[in-house]
Each structure stands twice: as C-alpha cells, then as structure tokens.
Amino acid sequence: MPSATPSTTTKRRKKSIFYNQNMAEKMKEASDCRKEFLETVTISDMWLVGTIIVFSVLGNTYRFNNHSEVYFGAFLFCCSFGVYLLFKERERRLSPPPEKPSKKSAAAK
Predict the structure, then answer these.
(1) Are 86 and 38 within 8 A, CB to CB?
(2) Around Cβ 84, how many Cβ atoms within 10 Å?
(3) Which residues fall within 8 angstroms of residue 48, CB to CB, at 6 or more apart?
(4) Mean pLDDT of 8-27
(5) Distance between CA atoms of 37 and 30, rounded to whole angstroms?
(6) Which of 13, 66, 68, 82 has its CA 20 to 30 A from that of 2?
C-alpha cells in the first residue's frame, strides 16, 4: 500500500481565532435569505425599481423648458408603468400561485 502524501490526505482545518458560533449561524441565515430573494425577485420587480429610479433622477436633474415636456414625461412614465403591468400579468400566467389546501383536509389532520 503506497504511503499517503500530504496532497492526498485530508486534514481538518483548524478554526480561526475569529470563529464565532453565533456569527456562523447568522451568516447561514443571511445566505438563506439571499437565496430566497434570488428565487422570488422577478423581471417586473426590476422594471418597476428601474422605472422609479430613472424618472426620479430625470425629474430632479432635467430642466423643463415648457409644459409640453412635463406632459410628455408623465406620458412616458405611464407607458413604463403599463410595461410593468404587462410583465406582471405575463409572470402571473406563466407561474400561477400554488393551490391552498382546503379547510376539510386541514381539519382532518
């Protein structure tokens, strides 16, 4: 039997002096929260956040020269919100919410 070399043996790593059980548990919870966020965030959510950010920045930085520019900006915002509603409806149709258990089956348990 060949002798084990350092590269083939697995040594258990010694815990760092900075290791803290409470911190390790909190980091695990944070990891689970990040995974849940990535599973639940959708394109419609990103579109809505992007629309709000873009129009907020433009509204605060752009100098309007006449009233028609204000009306045109409001029209573009309404169109962007309409796109958001279309995205939301598409997502609702592609992945319907799970059916809730009936009260009779819940009472039987």
Answers:
(1) no
(2) 20
(3) 84
(4) 77
(5) 10
(6) 13
Contacts for 89 with CB less than 8 Å, ≥ 6 apart = none
* Average pLDDT, integer, range 66-87: 94
Q: What is the DSSP-derived secondary structure letter of residue 67?
A: H
- What residue type is assigned to position 28 of the chain? K
Q: Which residue has the tokens 């939301």?
A: 88
Tell me 18's DSSP state: T
> What pLDDT was estimated at residue 105?
58
Has residue 96 got a pLDDT over 60?
A: yes
pTM above 0.70, yes or no: no
Spatial CA neighbour of 41 closest among 97, 91, 78: 91
How long is the chain? Answer: 109
Closest Cα to residue 88, out of 35, 34, 36, 51? 51
Residues 6+ apart with CB under 8 A from 64: 70, 73
Q: Which amino acid is at 44?
A: S
